[in-house]
Amino acid sequence: MHMRCLISNSHNPYFNLATEEYFLKNGEEELFLLYLNEPSIVVGKHQNLLAEINLNGALANDVNLARRITGGGAVYQDLNNLNFSFIHNCPERDKINFIIFTNPILEALKSLGLNAEFSGRNDLLIDNKKISGNAMHIYKSRVLSHGTLLFNSDLSMLSDSLKNDHSRYADKAIKSVRSPVVNILGHLKTPITIEEFTGSIFTEITQGKEDTDLRPLSTDEESAIQKIAKDKFETWDWVYGYSPKYVFENSIQFGDDSVTVILTIEKGVILNAKFEKYSKHTEFFNELEDSLSRTPHDFKLVREAIEMAKKRAPHLALNVDHFCAQLF
Q1: What CATH superfamily classification does 246-325 receive?
Q2: What is the mean pLDDT of residues 21-50?
Q3: Residue 268: C-alpha distances to residues 239, 265, 289, 296 (Å)
Q4: Distance (Å, rounded) from C-alpha 277 to C-alpha 129?
């Protein structure tokens, strides 16, 4: 079967996610794609973004926040994490499974001397530690199967970027399951660069295969992909607003008092804000409830709402950034 084989020249996560969608939904061409993203957190299609990420850390480190069209859990990616994608025509759905689609990657890793194996949770492991997570999306008779390869990622950033505690969020979203992870580089007998690793994986999968098409993206394809990235993957409505309806609850220490906040959010927008169990600063909290109503659950906009409410209580000693952080 004719297969288009590409290494993306872009490190923009929105462009690379749009590339997958473009090829999945246009034509019948099968695809093998490799790409590197600049520091990003990519959540699964059906996840609650804010429940999965350490928002303060992500904002402080200028980490991109993105949502993909496949299911599964949240992943941290950087320029030392290699992403791979396969798009296949699969008219017989009973033949769709992760083992078939990840096997070429598994064999490519073994060619580098790595003792990698497939896990029942759709992961690839070395020494029982995760090096690759995989996810899938079916569109008509075509399937996108893609995954990550932790080559030499910043594992401390990975740990700091993702939440382990979902207790403040009540929803029906898919929750990430954290697993012990390890970088591939430490298991190679001879150290190589991420560029050499990328080239090796690409060559191993494409060499000697018939009907491989190594054409780069055309100008028209690139324009169409940029449009998908701009109209969908970069938008607030997709990244934040696609999260399932949820209720956020937290207890905040406020001077000598504590206050319980309950936010009801749908399509990323706060429908109702309620502050309970406080005995002081009534005017401020009443104003804040009004200010937050119909406000997107977005750090910058929530902070502005807190500032607005604080104007009604000018003598109130309040660290706005700290207070705002407790609402996420």
Answers
A1: CO dehydrogenase flavoprotein, C-terminal domain (3.30.390.50)
A2: 97
A3: 9, 6, 17, 6
A4: 45
